[in-house]
Write a structure and sequence with these properties.
- This protein is an alpha/beta fold.
- The chain has a domain of about 40 residues.
- The protein has 18 helices and 14 strands.
- The chain starts with 5 loop residues before the first helix and ends in a 5-residue tail after the last strand.
């Protein structure tokens, strides 16, 4: 691999973007590997450690270092040794709040490096100079996170901000950031394709302006924080604007949080391909009317928490299930199993590739019906333990009734459940899988870190899994905790 050209190595290394340990190992191979992997390690500032911020401070221009020094922040202003790389230029994903918070932590951890008498003032000064560094050095930022303005800095006015932000494709922000920020961004960014807004008690005036000037908004996420009283929902303020400006371009819509908004406006986005409804504690207002709306392009439907009668959801699936490729129901904590809904999935959702749902102990025949009717199914997440199917029942049904496309099984464990899968039962599953499928499989376990015990808790089961990994039958085995499951 060391003789591969740089562009090939770059494509290979992209598969390790989420694997910081492997990327750090690549740094040590040779100069070329180091040059490629360092760009990925510095791509997302959310992955930065404290040492990254020390490095960023050393990368500051002398003018910025002089400002820090004059404010009692002790850093070297000499030109003794420049950093090996222009690290700031590699950043593609930037979180403004994380920069401020990490600089504050840097103060707290390293009193020798930075002498601080007034934590807030000095944090502000250092963070401001780092913002300036990013604005001047990042050639084209892709994604920006900016929630609740703790820094009071309008970084969009800094030199280089226009070039840095002009190609921004994804913005994640809160509704109460200063209007000056939104207005400045409206002048720079007209091609944001993904916009995620967390609505606080106030909507800045500039937010509407930013929404209005976007030319091709495709993905929209609206999260309502706790309202002061029923009906006090700031999402309502921008719905007419969203409909008038983006009814024909929007293909992905995510509504979440403490919702109290009529869902009828969703019907205006006829080109939706993905819809997620994830509300904390309110009914899906007007879903009784939305159930009859047809979305001809809808392919992905996610409803983690159910606050609507299954009868309404069944009608919605009858109208929209034929084109669905992915359906996730009840991925949140609670009882979200309904046999009548699962029967409708088997009948009206024949093109599913991915499915997440639950089956009670007496509903194994329904699981089998889904496995037989959904011939394109590639991945299935099944709730296990307690009142749900056992691991043994789930695995036996999958291997016996699924079609040739299925290659991923996800077992989702309820709280306080104990695995009952015996080693010989797991061995039997793998033996039957080889005999019937003759393809490799991914096996993923999702559980609570403290209060559920899945098959990975048994040493003999793990020995069996490791053996089949070596044989190439299991291409991926992974244990994920609830809080890490997206």
């Amino acid at each position: 691999m060391s003789k591969l050209p740089a562009d090939c190595l770059s494509e290979i290394f992209k598969y390790f973007e989420e694997d910081q340990i492997t990327l750090h190992s690549c740094l040590l191979v040779n100069r070329l590997w180091c040059k490629i992997s360092v760009k990925l390690l510095w791509r997302d500032d959310r992955d930065y450690s404290t040492s990254n911020y020390y490095t960023l401070i050393t990368c500051l221009p002398n003018e910025s270092k002089e400002i820090l020094y004059n404010n009692g922040i002790m850093v070297s202003t000499s030109n003794s040794k420049l950093p090996v790389f222009n690290y700031a230029s590699f950043c593609k994903i930037l979180s403004i709040n994380r920069i401020y918070n990490n600089v504050e932590q840097l103060f707290l951890k390293s009193k020798k490096y930075i002498i601080s008498r007034d934590l807030d003032d000095k944090t502000f000064i250092v963070a401001r100079e780092i913002y300036k560094l990013f604005m001047t050095q990042i050639p084209s930022l892709m994604e920006l996170y900016f929630y609740k303005d703790t820094s009071k800095v309008i970084f969009t006015t800094y030199p280089g901000a226009n070039d840095c932000l002009k190609n921004l494709s994804k913005l994640n922000c809160s509704s109460d950031i200063s209007s000056e920020f939104f207005n400045q961004l409206s002048q720079i960014c007209h091609n944001i394709q993904s916009l995620n807004i967390t609505f606080e008690k106030v909507n800045s005036n500039g937010l509407s302006n930013l929404i209005s000037v976007q030319k091709n908004l495709k993905c929209l996420g609206l999260k309502q924080q706790q309202a002061q009283y029923r009906g006090d929902n700031k999402v309502n303020d921008i719905i007419p604007l969203l409909i008038s400006k983006h009814y024909d371009t929007l293909i992905k819509l995510n509504l979440s949080g403490n919702y109290d908004v009529s869902l009828l406006f969703v019907a205006e986005f006829k080109n939706l391909q993905e819809l997620e409804l994830s509300f904390d504690n309110h009914d899906f207002v007007d879903f009784d009317r939305l159930q009859y709306v047809t979305f001809p392009n809808l392919q992905i439907l996610k409803i983690p928490f159910i606050f609507v009668s299954y009868e309404l959801l069944i009608t919605f699936l009858k109208n929209n299930g034929n084109n669905l490729r992915e359906f996730y129901i009840g991925d949140g904590e609670g009882d979200y199993s309904d046999n009548s809904l699962n029967l409708v999935i088997a009948k009206f959702c024949p093109k599913l590739r991915k499915l997440s749902t639950g089956f009670k102990n007496d509903e194994i025949e329904t699981l089998q019906m889904i496995l037989k009717s959904c011939i394109y199914l590639e991945s299935i997440k099944i709730w296990c333990g307690g009142e749900y199917l056992s691991e043994k029942e789930a695995l036996e049904s999958v291997v016996k009734y699924s079609h040739e496309n299925l290659c991923e099984i996800i077992l989702y464990h309820q709280y306080y459940t104990q695995s009952e899968l015996l080693p010989d039962e797991l061995e039997s599953f793998f033996t039957n899988w080889i005999h019937r499928k003759q393809i490799s499989i991914s096996l993923i376990i999702i559980k609570d870190e403290s209060f559920s015990f899945s098959l990975d808790a048994d040493e003999k089961n793990m020995e069996i899994i490791k053996r089949y990994i070596k044989l190439g039958i299991v291409n991926k085995f992974k244990v994920i905790y609830y809080e890490d499951d997206d």
